[in-house]
Amino acid sequence: MLRLEARPNPSRTMQALTPVIAVAATMIAGGILFALLGKSPFAAIRMLFWDPVFGEFAFYYRGQILIKAAPLILIALGLSFGFRANIWNIGAEGQFIMGAVVGGATGLALYPYEAFWVFPLMIIMGAIGGMLWGLIPAFLKIKFNANEILVSLMLVYVASNFLAAMVTGPLRSPVGMNFPVSRNFSEYASAANEELIAGTGMHWGVVTAFLAVIVAYIALTRHIAGFQIQVTGQSARAAKFGGINPNLTIALCLGLSGALAGMAGIFEATGPAGKLSTNFPVGYGFTAIIVAFLGRLNPIGVLLAGLLLAITFVGGDVVQTELQVPKASIQVFQGMLLFFLLGSEILVNFRLRLNKKGVA
Amino acid sequence: MTPLLRISGLTKAYPGVVANDNVSFDIGIGEVHALLGENGAGKSTLVKAIYGLVHPDSGTMELGGNAYDPGEPRNARASGVAMVFQHFSLFEALTVGENIALGMENAPETTALSEKIRTVSANYGLTLDPDRLVGDLSAGERQRVEIVRCLLQEPKLLVMDEPTSVLTPQEVDILFETLRKLKAEGTSILYISHKLEEIRTICDHATILRLGKVVGTCIPSEETPKSMAEMMVGTTLTAPKKGAFQPGPALLEVHNLWLASSDPFGTSLKEITFNLHAGEVLGIGGVAGNGQDELMLALSGEERTQNGTIQFKGENIGHRGPNYRRTQGLLTAPEERLGHAAAPDMSLTENALLTGFGRQKLTTNGFVKWNATKNFARAIVEKFDVRTPSVNNAAKSLSGGNLQKFVIGREIMQNPEVFIVNQPTWGVDAAAAADIRQAILELAHNGAAVLVISQDLDELMEISDTFAVLSEGAMSKVRSAQGVTIEEIGLLMGGTEVSHAPA
Amino acid sequence: MDFSAISPVSLIVSLIAASTPILLAAIGELVVEKSGVLNLGVEGMMIIGAITGFIAAVSTGNPFLGFLGGAIGGALVSIIFIVLTQYLMANQVASGLGLTMIGLGLAALLGHSYAGIKPPSSPHLDIAGLSDLPVVGPILFNHDFIIYFSIILTASVWYFLNRTKAGLILRAVGENHDAAHALGYKVVRVRIYAILFGGACAGIGGAYLSLIRVPQWTEGMTAGAGWIALAIVVFGSWKPWRVLIGAYLFGGVTILQLNLQAVGVNIGAAYLSMTPYIITIIVLVIMSSDKKRASLNAPAALGKLFHASK
Question: Which domains occur in chain B, in start order?
Answer without folding.
Answer: 5-233 (3.40.50.300), 250-493 (3.40.50.300)
